[in-house]
Amino acid sequence: MRNRIFLTVLGAVLLATLATGCNTVYVQSKQYLGVPNFPPTDPASVQVLQTQPTASHVRLGEITLQPQGNPTKAQMEQKLRLAAAKMGASAVVIVADQTMVFGATVMGPWWGRTISPDVGRVIVGVAIRYTP
User: Are 61 and 28 in contact (CB under 8 A)?
Assistant: First the structure.
């Protein structure tokens, strides 16, 4: 009976994993030192911008995304909005969207090793808050 329950749960987890396609977005944010603290904002009101705005603003911090799999643009923008809203931002300006080498994988015996780089996408945004 226990094995049957275990196999059922395991099958459900595998099916859920296959259904979502293993698309995840790792988010890391860091607030700049010396910047005033603002109360959190509504994530729906946070803009995602490709260029720096001309309106006066203050930079609050950086948000780094590392997408795994093939998440949609909407999923990545939502992660940016959520992280920026926690800082009290009005918008996020994308400053970098590139592919980077994170390390290398070494396979094979010592006399015939192969080394292949571990490559991933990194997106960096700067959270800003408009000032009057």
Answer: no
> What span, in angstroms and rounded, lies between the C-alpha atoms of 77 and 92?
9
pTM here is 0.73
The pair of three-digit structure tokens given for residue 130, joined into one six-digit string: 């408009």
24 — pLDDT class (breaks 50, 70, 90): confident
> Using CA atoms, how far apart are residues 61 and 65, in angstroms rounded to an integer?
13
**How would DSSP label each residue in the chain?**
-HHHHHHHHHHHHHHHHHHHTT-EEEEEEEEPTTPPP-----GGG-EEESS--SS-EEEEEEEEEEEES---HHHHHHHHHHHHHHHT-SEEEEEEEEEEEEEEEEES-TTS-EEEEEEEEEEEEEEEEE--
On whether the CB atoms of residues 88 and 130 are closer than 8 A, the answer is no
φ and ψ of 77, to 5 deg: -65, -35
